[in-house]
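Inputs:
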Amino acid sequence: MSRPTDDTLEESAARLHVTSKSSGAYETGPMKVVGKSALRLDAVGKATGATKYGQDLFDKKFLFAKVLRAAHPHAEILGIDTREAKRLSGVVAVLIHKDVPGTNLHGLIRRDQEVLCSKKVRYRGDALAIVVAKTEEIAVAALEKIHVDYKPLPSVLTMEDALKVDAPKIHAEGNVLGEKHLRRGDAPRAMREADVVVEDIIQTQTVDHAFLDLEAGRARYDGKMLTIEVSGQWLHEERRLIALALGLPLEKLRIIQPATGGAFGGREDISIQIYLGVAALKLKGKMICLRYSRSESTIVRHKRHPIRVHYKLGAKKDGTLVAAQVTFYVDKGAYASTGIAVMRKASSHATGPYKVPNVWVDVLGVFTNNNPCGAMRGFGAAQTAIAYEGLMDRLAVKLGMDQAELRRKNLVKSGDEVTTGQVVPYATATECFDAVLKRIDWKNRSYETPAPHLKRGYGISIVCFGLGYGDGFPDASRARCRLTPDGLLEVYSGACDVGQGLTNMIAQIAAEEVGVPLEKVRPILSDTALTPESGSTSATRQTYFTGSAVHIAASELKKQLQDIAASHLQELVYEIKIENGAAFNVHRPERRMTLKEIARVGKKRGFSLEAMGVYKPPTMPENTQTGQSMRAFVTYLFGSHACQLLVDTETGEVKIERYIACHDVGKAINPDQVIGQIQGGVAQGIGMALMEEVVMKDGKIMNPGFTDYILPTIRDVPEIECIVLENPDPGGPFGARGVGEPPLIGTGPAILSAIYDAIGTPIRELPATPERVWRALLDH
Amino acid sequence: MFYQPKDIQKALGLKAELKERGAFLAGGTDLVVLMNHGKAAPENFIDLTHIPELRAIHKHNGTLELAGNVTYAQMGKLPIRCLARASLSVGGPGIRELGTIAGNLATASPAGDGSTALLALDAEVELTSVRGTRRLPLEEFFLGYRKTALAPDEMITKIFIPTNYQTDWAKNGKRGAMNISIVAVAVAITPKKEVRIALASVAATPIRCYQAEKFLAKNGLTTETIRQAVQSVRGEIKPITDHRASADYKVHVSGVMVRRLLESLVKQ
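Outputs:
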């Protein structure tokens, strides 16, 4: 087990309160703010256009930067001549690798990517130079005047080519990023002894995050502090990476998050921050702006890993699963990014919600000269779910069993071990699944269609998802609550709201715990100079982690406020209740004082009127050989989906007729936002299942824009029937679990399962475009 | 320069003077996209949106006259099934309010949705310049990949379409809206019971399938003749494999769509 080593005394003290978050004795009444679909605090600003996103921070009087990208997917750099570009009127600076003051390296887990390439380019999005000019147009013109002398190297575009003995090496150490293994029981032996075995190969595609708010921001260095305003997902980690690349001490670097329009994992890797930093340090006192176009954003940014899954599943005659043998080949693209963690997520989720006593998993991450792949909603578990649910369908057919019955029989129950060997104390997979089967009326499903060329299909999927980073990573969230002299409740957190609604989540939790109306809460978010580190907006962790940290801080602050009120009113502290912004004695409500009065009195008596909350639930590293861990993840989330669709067997077109998604979120802090997350995840999952695909040719993206990168529209997304279950998780704030990723994970498999049900032959390569469905029917 | 002529004569005068250095701008749904992608950078714009007569729709002796700036939204309301359906499939509501028929034809996209409907309708275009006016069948207007018969000083002023054709239209693509077609098909039956079949995204320009049309004109529309006509269509088209779909799929799905549309016309 990993021992948390960097705990401060304060953190250790705060940790003691994790299990007893409620502070007062009279807290059993109905909740006033949590569980209510309060209007989003950012709604008016966003709807009226007052909210400032990255591009809104620009001004004509600032300087503008542009970045030169590689002309080849794989080449040595023999020289970079910037003289002509520098001579262009209006150009202020042209910067190359020599101008980066620090390590010139970045990367979330392994720092293997140069900010500005010095010797070699490894994909077409690699950067070589930054131009800073008086206008964006001049900067673009200057890029053309930079002359790079390349020695093109043979490019490695497929995993097969990358693994050949004589393959050109993309990185000095070779073309393999790493391996992951999971060994549970004796899978080969159990497979030999199984009554029925099914086996298949499934290939997922390269997917783009396609967030609307393109990378954009600004930076300035005033001689003491470098301030960078760019949207990310984990400001404090970004600050560390930027500081290393630039050779700056942390305290000289401030990162501020502008309003953010979507992330989905696409802002986890560093984007434009270091370019801005390099330019700002060079041009002291000047404000530098930089933004990507849609095509630059697509060409440069990491993607969802395309994964080839070899899956073999064995069962007894009665459908009881006995063995799974799985190999994942993961196309990493050019750099490591979060690849190792994605590979681990794939292996630890290899059998999803199904209890399989013997599981062997091997994962191989392979470098190519394609776009680097990294975090995206689902993080390796999305690709995996498509494989295991596909195999469950094939198994049901081979056994002659109803596909729902086969699944239900093998679901993990509370107290069972999942693939990592972790016991899941609160498994609600069966509840979710049953809710979905009931809603779609599974037993009475009808296959009648209006025309013979139309075939109907029903698909089901179940999600079991490990929340947070786990694996012994010292994952923590911190938050601070403060009562202002005006009686307002300020909540400070470094967590990034990337559009999902984190602002309301923390405000509603703080309001509920302290006992103030929501309009008295002032969330202050994501500014490294003001807010404590709250970890990343990823791994479906912010409600569980930062929500808990806020809950703890609010609870600590409330105790102070109750102490102040009790001593001032001369009442017993355990009889003091705070409600609607006033403290009073529960038995004598006329004995009361407002929070503003508490602030005044408390200040006079030397109270800090603020409190810190730290939430750091421990996990344990997975054994490197077996992938087993008693606590691989802090908790598991469950959900289930059902899909009814029509396949046009002549054209291969698919029309989703009905979609049902059930998720157990523990407690919906804001139910409308939870439903928004579910619907958004399903819509994004429909894109992955049916149409989204980054098409690459010779390392070049052929569809770097929304004309040809096909995202679902409102015509492609049916009404999504959401079922929200609330089985509380004792580790989450007010029992909340989380909801970010599972809705996406459930969607692809449900749709593919329904297509298989309709046409009787599986789609093995994603997305299931009309053409792929047609071809599957031809080959059938 | 950005010119905003108030009548057609002034616009034509400007175009005659500027020729290739002046670009007509109506909805801008193609031109502005090209500019954003750095594929067009006109020196001068001749904005046509201040000429009300270019938005007019008239009917004379059973022929509709659409002026050049008639939008997809306007055409979506016409009682001509193939044209209305094609128009309503273009982009989204915003694009349909801006995009114009003349713009669509001048762009000569091989994937033009409106073009297939107009080809099946035997539409004619009126091209006007300071030199005068000429009228030619739409089939003769498309010369090659994004090439048209439009001279550098000419404007598409009118499109003439008959109102007595029985028509239908469909498209295949990866999603339900904002959808560049993998294949688009328009079919029509003339009052003389001749058949018209037009397809987009299967050649360098939107095309007609004359052999199939002739075969059907001669042999009538039955399940069997339609089957044979579909084979003919599959031979007449020359799609390419691209990132939207393979040539094989386009050939196959063109046939399916032609068959279904013709069968639905027979039933009507």
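Remarks. Residues 1-49 of chain B form a domain with the Uridine Diphospho-n-acetylenolpyruvylglucosamine Reductase; domain 2 fold (CATH 3.30.43.10). The two ends of chain B are 52 Å apart (CA to CA).
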